[in-house]
Amino acid sequence: MCGSSPSKDSSITLYRFPKPGTRNALRCELWAKYCFPNEAWSSPKFQEELHLKHKMLCSKHFESTCFNEKLFRTAVPGVQCYKENLQLLINAIWHKM
Ligand SMILES: [Zn+2]
Fold first, then answer.
1. pLDDT tens per residue, range 24-55
2. Nearest by Cα to 78 from 65, 95, 96, 94
3. Which part of the chain is the THAP-type domain (predicted)?
4. Domain residue ranges in the chain
5. pTM, full prediction
6. CA 62 to centroid of ligand 1, rounded, Å
7. Distance of CA 92 from the midpoint of ligand 1 (Å)
């Protein structure tokens, strides 16, 4: 996405766009919004496409709090991954709708 690649920088790990589903619908939406703020990021079809096209995001886009050796399942790019924060984020989004 941003041109970073593990072959150039070994400290970088790539993460594939999550597979959209009922359990991670919000997370997919946030990933899509982060990567494509000017596109149809809220569309489930668009999100599905990102997954199918193997869109990847490198570890630079995630706060260090999102890792515990591996990326947390709930991790969202650009967001600190404390559970409370994710909950706040969810509340903020729901209130907008
Ligand atoms: Zn990147």
1. 888 899 999 999 999 999 999 999 999 999 99
2. 65
3. 1-80
4. 14-96
5. 0.77
6. 9
7. 26
